[in-house]
Amino acid sequence: MTLELSTLFTAGFLYLVLLFLIAYITDRGWIPEHWVSHPLVYTLSLGVYATSWTYYGSVGFANSSGYLFLTIYLGVTLAFALSPVLLRPILRLTKEYQLSSLADLFAFRYRSQMAGVLVTLFMLIGALPYIALQIRAVTQSLQVLTQEAPPHILALGFCITLTAFAILFGARHISPREKHRGLVMAIAFESLVKLVALLGVGFFALFGIFSGPEGLNQWLTENPEAIQKLYEPVGSSQWGTLIFLSFGAAFLLPRQFHMLFAENLREDNLRVASWGFPVFLLLLNLPIPVILWAGQYLELSTDPDYFVLGITLAQGHSWLPMITFIGGISAASAMVIITTLALSSMCMNHLLLPASYPDPRLNLYYWLLWGRRLLIGLIILAGYSFYAFLEHRAGLAQLGLISFVAVVQFLPGIVGLLYWRRATREGLIAGLLAGISIWAFTLLLPMLQHSGFIENSYPLARWQEIAGLDHWSFATFWSLSCNALLFALVSLFSRQRKEEQQTADSCCSSIFVPLTGVVAARSPDEFKKELGALLGESTARKEVDRALNDLNMPPTETRPTELRRLRERIEHNLYGLIGPQMSHLIINRRLALDPEARTALADSMRYVEERLAHSRSLLHGLTRELDNLQRYQKQILEDLPLGACALGQDGEITIWNQVMEEYTGVTDQVTVGHPLQQLPKPWNDLLGGFARASDSHSYHLEVEYAGKTRWFNLHKAVIEAPQITTTSEAPGMVILMEDLTQLENLEAELAHSDRLASIGRLAAGVAHEIGNPVTGIASIAQNLKYEEEPAAIEQSARDILTQTKRITSIVQSLMNFSRSSSGGQQSLQPVALASILQDALDLVRLVHKRKLLDYHIDCAPELVVMADRQRLAQVFVNLLNNASDASSPGDSIHIRAGRNASQVIIEVIDQGTGIPEHFQQQLFEPFATTKATGKGTGLGLALARNIVLDHNGEIEITSAPHAGTMVIIRLPDPGQSVPQSR
Amino acid sequence: MTRAPSNKNTDKSLVAAFVLVLIFATPFTNLWARSEWPWYLPYLLWLGMILLLVLSRSRRNRSSGENRKT
């Protein structure tokens, strides 16, 4: 039976429309994301590897070379078995640097435009026979189904249709670097169709032709040579060569590289694909021997390459050949579409853009889009030309294998890229040129000669005979050997440039490359302006905004580290748009690094931490242990119950721990990388001033923050380890911050308690002192009723007023003393020292009146100090109380006040019992007292010391047993400059 | 110290690749490439290799899970 050409063409066209609809609804988001990014979809999309060669040609290949056809898939299984050491590193590189093709990858690693051009050209030449193979498979399948030679225009029509669909699938969007989710879904569907179709044909062969496994076994028993022929070539020289070729083709063919790496949505999908894809290939190849034997059983006259179609026609069903034909269309169209998309991207980045970079006034995105569309058309046209002018005698497998030998020429380069840092671009180019030349000499030219394009011949067959190698092994061995040898030798004898070394380190083991410069442009706006000169204003704006968005960076960012990161991100994003080499050139030209500018330690630290975090999964052994230790040490600093802030060489903050964030309310996002001076108030003054000061410690610093007063102690130390980084030239500093606010509040409460305790002790004296004028007033009042003389009455009234003033004065003193103080620096005011001393003495006298002590104040009335009057009075009350307690009746107590160059000095001297030597060390400790229980709290001197410290003063006690005690207080002279802290 | 899971993956993948090369690309092929064996024997060997890959992957999952817990 035969099918109508128009029916087949319509079916093929409708099938392509269906594929486009699948791609379209996927792109529109109508298919759930978890389906699109499912590992099964990714695995099936890799099925683009199986082209018409697999679908039709495998049976022909099995007919001529037995199980040799399996090598084409065993090599792929080997490549996927090695995915952790081979495919995953490439996937990481392509994802990290947005590299979409092998040419991009080589141009990036070897920092060579020439490498990109060579890879592109060679890929293009190598792919043309393969595209021609697909066109030929489709036209010949039409011939088989219609039993007549299809018009030549049909092949051209097929190519035009494929061009349209390739543009619709892959060049519909403006930005070529976006993942083509719809395309991946459509290719996965295509793989499923061809798998189902081929399995269906195999099922039909087994049950429809052989009537089941028994029938097949019977036929095989009758024809033992069938199995024998299959096993014959196993282990031959071709066997190993083809496994090796397919191993390379598994990830180096443009379409494989594109689907494996450029269209990978999730890195984890590769793990499933590492076994899922071999399963797919196994299922696809399972029916091949059965189909072959069915064809032989039916004694078909068809070319064995098309037995897949031939056996379906033999039984008279029309739907089965149609489904089989659709499967063949699937295989051919998927290959052509993906290959041309991948090649167009390579040609654009490595041929067209370097040759004629568009005017910046043009919209780069549209230029790239139309450029790619044009290239897709040209590549398919070139494939068609190859098909049209070639002799059709070569089998499908032969055409495919020529491409395989071409792509394995990239193996030395890819091994060098992943594992050999010393590999140079000169080595790569030399090796590739040698490999390409030998490939052309041994495979391409004989094919052209075979087709009559070349007249001259050379004794290739004889050379192969001398070498004892078959056609494919000869070409593969010599091309690859010379390629690898030259690659290694030239690499060893050529000098590697610095930028190539950096990318080699990045590719070989994701090693951190330290920052070596600062971007000359100082803000994202300057980035846009600079890039606009080459990319065009709108493109530059979009790219900078996109990079800012990728990094979650504000457009106002000015920190050098962040700008460096932004520069890197823009460069990586541009890799996907215009290729790595062009992107590198543009970025280097417009966003130059200033190599002289020193990189701050904070910048390097953050950069290192980010890179380490990113590549942590790659660390192992000592490096991983070291990373754990580093993280542990950092965590110690983070969890320290003190505020910790480390500064780099220019005072830029490198560490700002959690407690520091709690104290200041400023996060490390804002502080790290900035100098202390850029901190918000009041921390810039507090920490900046302390960092500049010569003292290593500063106590009891008062800060007004968020409407509250807080107190801190600060400590600092110089970091004596300049060799920790190559970018650091001078030591940094670490500042520790201790919050005293709670302690200060507690002390204030204690001081108040102490005052109340003092009041209790004063109460008796006060009562007595008030009792006298009250008695006087009572007497005057009693006598007043007998007075008649106005003058006497007036005198009595004056006396009463005098007595009441005395009472008021006593009460006022007591109230002043008992009132709680605010205790802040802001309450310091200029006060006359003599009046404070007098107030204190008046109170103390009340208590110690009976001792008849002789108090002497020697203080000039004009002597002024900056003080909280009430708190300073408490100091003197405490000191005078102590002195009075220690004195015997009739002793003298002297209070002298004077000034030296910068201080006011007050001395309180008594002639009392003095302080025992063993007690003198703990005089200022709270609750330390020599007095009997109930006589004192032990807080007096401790509070006096704190109050004096609050006044930026000093207190000192000298005493000897039985020789009296002298307390010396030094307060800053308000006439001099007042230091903020001690 | 626990070794990085990526190292285990590498070891297993190298072992799997070695076995595949041993069975399919060395003189070991002479042991199975005989006409007295069933025609589907290469497919069974191939399937065995794939099962080895699946097995190593499932172990890999478990070990990486353990690593995460430690």
The tally of strands of chain B reads 0
Please state the overall shape of chain A, judged from the principal axes of the Cα atoms.
rod-shaped
Question: Mind telling me the CATH superfamily name of the largest domain in chain A?
Answer: Sodium/glucose cotransporter
Q: Main beta sheet of chain B: strand number and arrangement?
A: none
Bin the helical content of chain B.
over 70%
Oligomer: heterodimer
Question: Quick check: average pLDDT of chain A?
Answer: 82
Going by CATH, the architecture of the largest domain in chain A would be Up-down Bundle
Named CATH topology of the largest domain in chain A = Sodium/glucose cotransporter
Count of domain modules of chain B: 1
Bulk shape of chain B? elongated
Give the CATH class of the largest domain in chain A. Mainly Alpha
Instruction: Tell me the radius of gyration of chain B.
Output: 16 Å
Tell me about the largest β-sheet of chain A: 5 strands, antiparallel
Given the structure, what is the number of helices of chain A? 40
The secondary-structure element order of chain B is: HHH
Number of domains of chain A: 4
Radius of gyration of chain A: 47 Å
Characterization of this structure:
The complex is a heterodimer of chains A (982) and B (70). Chain A is α+β, with helices and mostly antiparallel strands. Chain A folds into four domains: 5-356 and 371-388, Up-down Bundle (Sodium/glucose cotransporter); 514-597, no CATH class; 616-739, 2-Layer Sandwich (Beta-Lactamase); 745-972, 2-Layer Sandwich (Heat Shock Protein 90), CATH 3.30.565. Chain A contains 40 helices and 14 strands. In chain A, the strands form four sheets. In chain A, strands 4-3-7-6-5 form a five-stranded antiparallel sheet, sandwiched between helices. In chain A, strands 9-11-12-14-13 form a five-stranded mixed sheet, with helices on one face. In chain A, strand 13 (954-959) and strand 14 form a beta hairpin. In chain A, helix 22 packs antiparallel against helix 24. Chain A is rod-shaped, with a radius of gyration of 47 Å. In chain A, 46% of the residues are buried. The model of chain A is unreliable at 722-730 and 977-982 (pLDDT under 50). Chain B has 70 residues and is mainly α. Chain B has one domain (5-69). Helix content of chain B is 76%, strand content 0%. Chain B has three helices and no strands. Chain B has helices spanning 5-24, 29-32, 41-69. Chain B is elongated, with a radius of gyration of 16 Å.
